[in-house]
Amino acid sequence: MHGHGGYDSDFSDDEHCGESNKRKKRTVEDDLLLKKPFQKEKHGKVVHKQVAAELLDREEARNRRFHLIAMDAYQRHTKFVNDYILYYGGKKEDFRRLGENDKTDMDVIRENHRFLWNEEDEMDMNWEKRLAKKYYDKLFKEYCIADLSRYKENKFGFRWRIEKEVISGKGQFCCGNKCCDEKEGLKSWEVNFGYTEHGEKRNALVKLRLCQECSFKLNFHHRRKEVKSKKRKDKAKKDSEESTHKKSRLSSVKETSKKKDKVCHMSQIKSLISKCIYNSVLYNDVTAWFLYCWCLWWRFIQYLQNR
After folding, report:
1. Quick one: pLDDT band at residue 216, thresholds 50, 70, 90?
2. In terms of pLDDT, which residue wins out, 295 or 261?
3. pTM, to two decimals
4. Measured distance CA(233)–CA(58) in Å, rounded
5. What ranges does the record list as Basic residues composition bias (predicted)?
6. Facing residues of 159 across strands?
7. Secondary structure letter of residue 194 according to DSSP
8. Strand, coil or helix: what is 80?
9. Residues 240, 243, 244, 245: what is their CA dihedral angle, to the nearest 10 degrees?
10. Beta-sheet strand order (sheet of 225-227)
11. Given CB 3.0 to 4.6 Å as the disulfide criterion, which of 61, 94, 171, 199 pairs with 143?
12. Residue 55 burial by Cβ neighbours in a 10 Å radius (0-12, 13-18, 19+)
């Protein structure tokens, strides 16, 4: 204490202040030595409200961005619609779109599909026609699948086969009628298919395989052309040639036998006539003339029967 007769000197406070200042300098120097190059400076003062608000907005925007990226398109759309209704008011019914004019890929293919594509059809191609053409290229066009439900009206429907039907054998190893799965007694038919497509009449020659019952339906009004394999054609030719050869041999044998019979009949008739004439001239016998005439008549009837 100053002025109370103690041992304290007047310079004691100055010494304490000097020591504290030295300590502060040491800590600052130590901090500078231990500071890392990427370490941010420490703020001793309170941050301004505007700076804090900007930092909060950035953090919130970052979180919202991550949240939106995690959503799909539909969830993102519904969130935006709900936010709009929440802030600006309105009803969800106002945002509902009419689905009357919506078209799927299958609808587009049905509208632009063609049974056969020509060079003229590929002139002006838009995306809808390209989609239909791409589907057409995937079809298998060897055999057709038929709709014979209106065969009594002479109206038929044909379409090409898809990959699933080719693998299962439908239309080739099974009956080509869409309502029939018969595998035995199949026949191949060639049909001139006339149809109207996009206001234009066209014809196409198609092949299909049908069972006996479905073949009857196909040929209900008039018979179509049956397609036969080469082996079957060769067999039919051989059978026809053999039958004609057999017929010719039989006819030749019959003709020779008939000629022999005719010769025998004529010789017998001549011998009888000569005997009857000899007897009638020598003995002037009426019975010989009567026998002569009866023999002639009987031989004539036999001759006509054998002819």
Report:
1. very high
2. 295
3. 0.48
4. 86
5. 225-235
6. 145
7. E
8. helix
9. 120
10. 200-210, 187-197, 225-227
11. 171
12. exposed
Cβ–Cβ < 8 Å for 203, 194? yes
Question: With bands split at pLDDT 50, 70 and 90, how would you rate the model's confidence at 288?
Answer: low
Q: What is the dihedral of CA 124, 127, 133, 137, to 10 degrees?
A: 130
Residue 10 is encoded by which pair of tokens? 């007047």
Pull the structure tokens for residue 239.
């059978």
pLDDT at 182: 92
- The confidence band for 8, taking pLDDT boundaries of 50, 70 and 90, is low
Residue pair 289/280 in contact (Cβ under 8 Å)? The answer is yes
Q: Is 94 or 232 the better-scoring residue by pLDDT?
A: 94
Q: Taken in order 37, 43, 48, 53, is the CA torsion positive or negative?
A: positive
CA distance 183 to 173: 6
For residue 2, pLDDT over 60 is answered with: no
Distance CA 217, CA 194 (A): 17
Token readout for 13 is 């406070």
Q: Where are the domains of the chain?
A: 52-94, 103-138, 140-227
Extract long-range pairs of 102-107: CB within 8 Å, 24+ residues apart: 105/131
Q: Reduced to 3 states, what is the DSSP secondary structure of residue 133? A: helix
Q: How confident is the model at residue 3 (pLDDT cuts 50, 70, 90)?
A: very low
- Please identify which residue in the block is written with the tokens 């941050």: 47
For 230, phi then psi, to 5°, come to -65, -40
Candidate from 3-17, 119-133, 198-212, 258-272 with smallest mean pLDDT: 3-17
The dihedral sign for the CA sequence 85, 90, 95, 96:
positive
pLDDT average, residue stretch 47-58: 84
Q: How many other β-carbons are positioned within 10 Å of the β-carbon of residue 161? A: 20
157: its two tokens: 């429907």
